[in-house]
Amino acid sequence: MTRYLVTGGCGFIGSHLVDSLLADGCEVRVLDDLSTGRRENVPDGTDVIVGDVADRDTVEAAMDGVDGVFHLAAIASVQKSVEDWTGTHRVNQTGAINVFDCARPGAGNAASVVYVSSAAVYGDNPDIPLSEEASLAPLTAYGADKLGCELHAAVARRAHGVPVAGVRFFNIYGPRQDPASPYSGVISIFVNRISRGQGITIFGDGEQTRDFVYVADAVRFLRAAMDAPKAEPTVYNACSGRQISINRLASLIGEIAGRPPEITYEDSRPGDIRYSAGDPSLARSGLGVQVEIPIEEGLRQTFDSLVAV
Ligand code: NAD
Ligand code: UD2
User: Fold this and answer.
1) Identified catalytic residue from 4, 115, 142, 236
2) Is residue 214 among the annotated active site residues?
3) Which pLDDT value is given to residue 309?
4) Can you say whether the dihedral through the CA atoms of 108, 18, 31, 143 is positive or negative?
């Protein structure tokens, strides 16, 4: 039986990955500090170590006996990386290095590693759809740390022989993305508020676009990256290739809710990216995976899961 460690496994995306691995009969261990993740996001009986991924001894112990590591633990808030540069760096960069370091052959816990990067590494690049070869110019410390993870992953492979693969997530949405945080994903915020008849705020003119990927598809990208050969430290976009404006998104959710959203427009957020859409062809050819759940269906499932609670 294959044994995996999922760091950040109590979080939004990580917990859906845990569900998928358990459903396939894999043995799963989770390392999570429960800072934004919730214990109840994973089934009772799951082996959960509550600890800090930025602490090397904790990571070393958590990796004992595993065949592979899905590294998702991070402070996923761009805003937090503005407010607490060194604190988010410690988690997002040192945490990743701890995983790569402990995965080295001969380090006692040799394992394959799939880690999560972000479209934030591209910054505000107008050459959309963005392929993995596009220029990398992160606008935030969050994006810089994700790019750092990619660079350290390449060192792990080339200097230490660690099999690694990276997945650059664009905008992931779906059940369990916590709408409580003002920095949560726009879809979780809009679905939560519109379903309750509350107004929403759009920062800017609403014509900014994003490439949204439903969380079940995101999990399929992670699983395919773990199963893929890792001769090179490759990074793959996890994107649909389709961009949608925030205005269009709001009206789609309004249609599902059966009520037009009440919208307040405010100034753009500092560093907000204007247009974002990825080129999905490398993951399609290299991993045999592509987005299968269109935004309309993903929004319906997200809405139904929230209203069902
Ligand atoms: P999330 O906050 O739900 O998940 C992060 C998890 O990591 C949480 O369970 C949290 O408790 C845990 N964590 C945070 N700091 C930790 C630490 N020091 N030690 C151990 N655990 C810690 O957010 P998410 O959206 O599920 O993000 C998962 C990964 O995907 C992150 O690496 C994030 O940067 C990346 N990502 C997400 C998106 C998106 O659209 N949601 C986009 C790009 C990249
Ligand atoms: C997402 C990720 C970030 C990073 C990035 C990479 C989240 C929360 N953030 O940032 O981690 O990986 O993608 O591309 O998943 N908006 C509104 N009203 C609201 C909330 C948001 O108008 O109430 C706008 C916001 O100004 C932005 C767009 O919606 O233009 C998307 O915002 P987001 O926070 O969901 O995601 P993003 O792309 O900033």
Assistant:
1) 142
2) no
3) 66
4) positive
246 CA: nearest ligand 2 atom: 29
Cβ-contact 177, 216 below 8 angstroms: no
**Which ligand number lies closest to the CA of residue 84?**
1
Under 8 Å between Cβ of 297 and 240 = no
For atom 19 of ligand 2, which residue has the closest CA?
186
**Which regions of the chain are under pLDDT 70?**
107, 309
- CA of 258 from ligand 1 middle (Å) equals 32
pLDDT digits (tens, 9 = 90+) for 76-131: 998 899 899 999 999 999 999 999 999 999 867 789 999 999 999 999 998 999 99
**CA atoms of 241 and 277, how far apart (whole Å):** 6
Q: Is the CB of 81 under 6 A from ligand 2?
A: no
Distance (angstroms) between ligand 1 centre and the Cα of 89 equals 13
What would the pLDDT profile of 181-210 be if each residue is shown by its tens digit? 777 899 999 999 999 999 999 999 999 999
Task: Judge contact between 26 and 5, C-beta under 8 A.
Answer: no
The answer to whether the predicted template modeling score (pTM) of the entire model surpasses 0.90 is: yes
- Cα–Cα dist 128/122, whole Å: 10
